[in-house]
Design goal:
It is globular, with a radius of gyration of 23 Å. 32% of the residues lie in helices and 20% in strands. The strands form five sheets. Strands 7-8-9-11-10 form a five-stranded antiparallel sheet. The protein contains eleven helices and 16 strands. With 451 residues, the protein is of the alpha+beta class. It folds into three domains: 120 residues, ACT domain (Alpha-Beta Plaits); 79 residues, Phosphorylase Kinase, domain 1 (2-Layer Sandwich), CATH 3.30.200; 181 residues, Orthogonal Bundle (Transferase(Phosphotransferase), domain 1), CATH 1.10.510.10. It holds the Pfam family PK_Tyr_Ser-Thr. InterPro entries: ACT-like_dom_sf, ACT_dom, Kinase-like_dom_sf, Prot_kinase_dom, Ser-Thr/Tyr_kinase_cat_dom, Ser/Thr_kinase_AS, Ser/Thr_Kinases-Pseudokinases.
């Protein structure tokens, strides 16, 4: 059975972005199908460092990559594309293209072009999918039809012959989304420069961040472009997933996965209060993984706080809102003041040069939030808190009942001297060790009760 598949490099009309986004400047050669939700990244943008160690990653010649095509046939279901995308990402695949076809009688055909899998391990990939798909097939009745490498000569077929494709550096960018394909449902938040809506795109729930106003100024344009560039750069299970963007005025918006669990700020301050130690560590580990990936890609978030941590339907925490994030240059220092005072590192408040360690300070404040369920410096105004941080070394009080290892990590993260703060790789390791320690202590208590 042959299945429709869009090759890497379509034919058609060219388009141009007025915002001059890199890789949006020449959105050449669109296919006749609706734009897929995911697209091709240049080799320089692929986040290889964020992949798990046990995934068989191949060493590729420059501008070349091996692609596999995965075709899944099923009865059409809500959130199907989102579920399949998450599954493939968790396996470790980079999704270069995704095409969803549906019929009037509710039949769906989903075609994915992926890379980041070793050339000789096609059967291993097939086995991996057959093992993982049953986790969601109860509700969607999925049937993986074919997994095949994409060759220059054969874009369809089911041949298992591997071949490297030479991919030109100026590949089309399929992140561009037609605004007419977005369905708005309700507004869920608003900010100084835009509004956030819940909606749908290609039958999947999405969050749509829309720039407010008919004539956004140059600064807003610049920040919008920067956010798109940064979100395209990173794919990680603990970073909110970028789906696409509308970059042609007047419809300027960014589309991401919809996080049904809401923000950690709302969870802590409006619903539940503080977290128990196991839940706290789970969230902290999720955030550390996401931030570690960002820093590996030289991205400084600059506004890390509980309001910018979102949870999915399974309670997985993800880093969100890259409106003020920046790519750190080779000098490794920045000088502009940005962020939110209660979470802001002292060097940023003082307009001193700073680097990625400013995010570590903010993470320390987030840990304190998770531990207490309170607003940092709740009895002070934001400005009073900022002055206290830089002039008096003010920090939120650590509760006496805190686990000693967690208290120690908090104090290290918000050290006045940025060089004394740990990297996220070390933070992640410490949190995972603490998680194991807490689990062991819990088991010991259970054994003592039984005896």
């Amino acid at each position: 059975m042959q299945v429709p598949s869009a090759p890497v490099g379509h034919s058609g009309d060219s388009m141009h972005s007025e915002l001059q986004l890199p890789y949006f400047d020449d959105l050449s050669k669109q296919s006749n199908h609706p734009p897929p939700a995911f697209g091709s990244l240049p080799d320089s943008e692929l986040p290889h460092k964020c992949q798990d160690k046990d995934i068989p990653v191949i060493d590729r010649p420059p501008n070349s990559r091996l692609m596999h095509e995965i075709t899944i046939s099923t009865n059409d279901k809500p959130k199907l594309l989102s579920q399949l995308t998450s599954l493939l990402s968790e396996i470790g695949l980079n999704i270069q293209e995704a095409h969803a076809f549906s019929t009037t009688d509710n039949y769906s055909l989903d075609v994915f072009v992926v890379d980041n899998w070793a050339p000789k391990d096609t059967e291993q990939l097939r086995s991996m999918l057959l093992k993982e798909i049953p986790k969601i097939e109860t509700s969607t009745h999925l049937k993986p039809h074919a997994i095949c490498p994409v060759t220059e000569q054969d874009q369809i077929g089911i041949s298992l012959v591997s071949n490297l494709i030479n991919v030109p550096a100026d590949l089309i960018d399929v992140w561009e989304i037609d605004a007419q394909q977005l369905i708005y449902e309700k507004q869920i938040a608003n900010g100084s420069s835009g509004d956030l809506y819940k909606g749908t795109f290609c039958s999947q729930d999405v969050a749509i961040k829309v720039l407010r106003g008919e004539h956004p100024n140059n600064k807003i344009h610049s920040e919008f472009a920067q956010e798109v560039i940064i979100m395209r750069k990173v794919r990680h299970k603990n970073v909110v997933k970028f789906i696409g963007a509308c970059t042609r005025p007047p419809s300027l918006c960014i589309i991401t996965e919809f996080m049904s669990g809401g923000s950690m700020y709302d969870f802590l301050h409006k619903q539940q209060g503080s977290l128990n130690i196991r839940s706290l560590l789970r969230v902290a580990i999720d955030v550390s993984k996401g931030m570690h990936c960002l820093h590996q890609n030289n991205i400084v978030h600059r506004d890390l706080k509980s309001a910018n941590l979102l949870m999915d339907e399974n309670g997985v925490a993800k880093v969100a809102d890259f409106g003020v994030a920046r790519v750190q240059d080779q000098s490794g220092v920045m000088t502009a003041e940005t962020g939110t005072y209660r979470w802001m590192a002292p060097e940023v408040i003082e307009h001193k040069p700073y680097n990625h360690k400013a995010d570590v300070f903010s993470f320390g404040i987030v840990l304190w939030e998770l531990l207490t369920g309170k607003l940092p410096y709740e009895h002070l105004s934001p400005l009073q808190a900022a002055v206290g941080v830089i002039q008096q070394g003010l920090r939120p009080p650590i509760p006496s009942h805190s686990h000693p290892k967690l208290a120690e990590l908090l104090e290290r993260c918000w050290q006045q001297d940025p060089s004394l703060r740990p990297e996220f790789s070390e933070i992640l390791e410490l949190l995972q060790q603490l998680d194991r320690m807490v689990a062991d202590e819990r088991q010991d208590k259970k054994k003592k009760k039984v005896s």
